[in-house]
Specification:
The complex is a heterodimer of chains A (202) and B (181). By secondary structure, chain A is mainly α. Chain A has helices at 7-12, 25-29, 33-44, 48-70, 72-88, 99-128, 146-150, 155-166, 171-178, 182-200. With 181 residues, chain B is mainly α. In chain B, 67% of the residues lie in helices and 0% in strands. Chain B is elongated and about 110 Å long. The chains are: A mainly alpha (202), B mainly alpha (181).
Chain lengths: 202, 181
C-alpha cells in the first residue's frame, strides 16, 4: 500500500549531504522538519518553551501510540515519560534523521519497557489477588475494539503489528527500530495477525 | 526448524496479503491456494483482521489533555537537559584534568631544575636532599665524568693522575705492600 506524500513531506525527503535520505512514512511522520530541528537545538540548550512547542506538535500522535501500546489507563503517564526521556536525551539527536522519527523511536522504547512492566505487574497481581485487575483491563466484550485486542498480544508481537498495520512502518524501519532482522519482523507480524483472528473476527 | 509443507504456505500468507512476495512466489502461492482449504480460510480471516487494523490507521489522534500533561512534564524537566549538562561537565572535567597535569609537569620540571642547579653549584652530591636514586645516579654520572680523562691517560701510559685505581684508594695494591687477597 502506498501513501500519498504531502508537499511538505516531499520537502522533508530532500537529500542532505552526508545524511541518508528519509523516505516513506518516516518522512510523513515528521512533516515539520526544520521547525523541529530548530526547536530541538534550542531545547538541547535548556529552552523549555522550544520543547513545549515540540510537545504540542507531537503529543497527540504519541498519545495515540501510547494508547495502542498500553491502553487508555496508562497512556497519559506514558506520554509524560516519553517527553521526559526525550528531554534527557536531546543531545543524542544529531540531525542524522528527522526529529519526528527520532522522537518516535524514543517513544517506542519507553512504551515497550512500560508494556513489559505492566504485564509483569498484572501477572503478579493476578497470581496474588484475583480482585486486583491488571493494569490494562480487557473486558469480555472486546471483539470490536482493536486496542483491546492488541492487549492480548505479547509485547513483541504487539509492537510489530502496531508499527506495521497501524503506524504504517515498513519491515526495514521496524527492524531498525526494534533491533530485529527483517525476516523476524515479518514473522512476528504474521503471528500477531493470526492471533488477532480470535479477537477481531465477527 | 523446518515447517511442514502446509505450514510453510500458511506462514507466508501475510506476505502474500501485503504483496511482499516475488512474482514467482506469488504465482506458486495462488496455485497452492486453489486446492488448500486451510490456507483459503486463514487468508479470508487474515484479510478481515488486516482491514480492521488498517481502518484504525487513520483515526484522528486520541484526545490528549495537553495542558494537564504538559504541566506534569514541565515539573519533571531538569534544566538544562542532563545530557547537555553531562557533556559540559565532561568537557570541563577533561580540561581541568589537562590543566592539572600541565601544572604538575611544570612544577616537577621547575623543582628538578632547581635541585639539579643546587647540586651542581655545591660541587658534590653529598647533601641529603633529593631522592636516593637520583643521588646515586648523579654521583655515578659525576664519577664517570671524573674518571673518563684518567682512563684515557692510563691507556696512553700516563697514570700519574689516576684517581680511580690509585694506591691511595687501594693500599693493598700499592707496590711493595702484600696483597690482602
Amino acid at each position: 500500500m502506498t501513501f500519498p506524500l504531502s508537499p511538505v513531506s516531499k520537502l522533508a525527503m530532500r537529500v542532505i549531504p552526508g545524511e541518508k535520505p528519509v523516505q516513506g512514512r518516516a518522512a510523513e511522520r515528521a512533516p515539520r522538519t526544520d521547525t523541529d530541528t530548530t526547536d530541538a537545538a534550542l531545547a538541547a540548550q535548556g529552552d523549555v518553551a522550544a520543547f513545549e512547542r515540540i510537545y504540542r506538535r507531537h503529543g497527540p500522535r504519541l498519545f495515540r501510540l501510547a494508547r495502542r501500546f498500553l491502553g487508555a489507563d496508562l497512556a497519559e503517564d506514558a506520554v509524560q515519560d516519553v517527553f521526559v526521556q526525550a528531554w534527557d536525551r536531546l543531545s543524542q539527536f544529531r540531525g542524522e534523521s528527522l526529529f519526528g522519527s527520532w522522537l518516535h523511536r524514543v517513544a517506542i522504547n519507553v512504551l515497550l519497557r512500560q508494556a513489559i512492566t505492566a504485564r509483569r505487574i498484572a501477572q503478579r497481581m493476578a497470581s496474588t489477588d484475583v480482585d486486583l485487575l491488571p493494569a490494562r483491563t480487557i473486558s469480555t466484550d472486546t471483539r470490536m475494539d482493536v486496542d483491546a485486542a492488541l492487549g492480548h498480544l505479547s509485547e513483541d508481537l504487539r509492537a510489530v503489528v502496531i508499527l506495521h498495520d497501524l503506524e504504517g512502518f515498513g519491515h526495514r524501519e521496524i527492524a531498525d527500530t526494534l533491533g530485529l532482522s527483517v525476516s523476524a519482523s515479518k514473522m512476528r507480524l504474521h503471528r500477531g495477525r493470526m492471533q488477532l483472528r480470535e479477537w477481531l473476527l465477527p | 526448524m523446518t515447517l511442514p509443507y502446509d505450514d510453510l504456505w500458511l506462514s507466508r500468507l501475510s506476505e502474500y496479503l501485503d504483496g511482499a512476495l516475488s512474482s514467482g512466489e506469488q504465482a506458486d502461492m495462488e496455485q497452492h491456494l486453489e486446492h488448500c482449504e486451510v490456507c483459503q480460510t486463514a487468508l479470508r480471516e487474515l484479510q478481515i483482521v488486516v482491514s480492521r487494523l488498517h481502518a484504525e490507521r487513520d483515526t484522528p489522534a486520541a484526545y490528549l489533555p495537553a495542558e494537564v500533561v504538559w504541566s506534569r512534564v514541565a515539573t519533571r524537566l531538569v534544566v538544562p537537559p542532563p545530557s547537555a549538562r553531562m557533556t559540559a561537565e565532561r568537557l570541563g572535567g577533561r580540561w581541568s584534568a589537562r590543566l592539572l597535569a600541565a601544572s604538575l609537569l611544570f612544577a616537577m620540571g621547575f623543582a628538578s631544575g632547581a635541585w639539579f642547579e643546587r647540586a651542581r653549584s655545591t660541587g658534590a652530591f653529598g647533601w641529603a636532599g633529593g631522592p636516593a636514586w637520583a643521588h646515586v645516579a648523579l654521583s655515578a654520572l659525576v664519577r664517570a665524568r671524573q674518571t673518563a680523562p684518567a682512563l684515557e691517560q692510563s691507556r696512553s701510559g700516563d697514570a700519574t693522575t689516576d684517581t680511580l685505581f690509585s694506591p691511595k684508594d687501594h693500599p693493598g695494591n700499592a707496590p711493595g705492600t702484600p696483597s690482602s687477597r
